[in-house]
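From the pipeline queue, job 12 of 40. The input is one protein chain; the requested action is below.

Action: predict structure.
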Amino acid sequence: MTDLLDPSRARRLKARTHDAHARLDARIMAGRPFEDRERYARFLTVQRAFHRDIDTLYSDPRLVALLPGLPERRRLKAIEQDLAISASRFPGTRRRPSSRPPTSIFPPPWVGSMSRKGRTSARRC
């Protein structure tokens, strides 16, 4: 799979956000989200809320023009499937179209596409 960004831009973005991502990862892992199914379901519920809010961005024509392959990085359906498998309930889908310019909405899809850790780690539960 090719990067959404040219390699130099991706490296700069990763370097600039490393500390924030490390803190977020530590905070998430402190909650032991993969310790049991109940904790994992709570983790998925948070992931679903985040991905639900950014889901429409993955099909935003302005972003797709800038980031070919962005629609294929959607995670909401996979998270919802994981929630269904874990027999958790979740509220109805709420979609909000974005009127913000692509430059202000770029980070959430990038972060969203990088949030695969939970699904990979969950296979251990």
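Job complete. The chain has one domain: 18-91+98-122.
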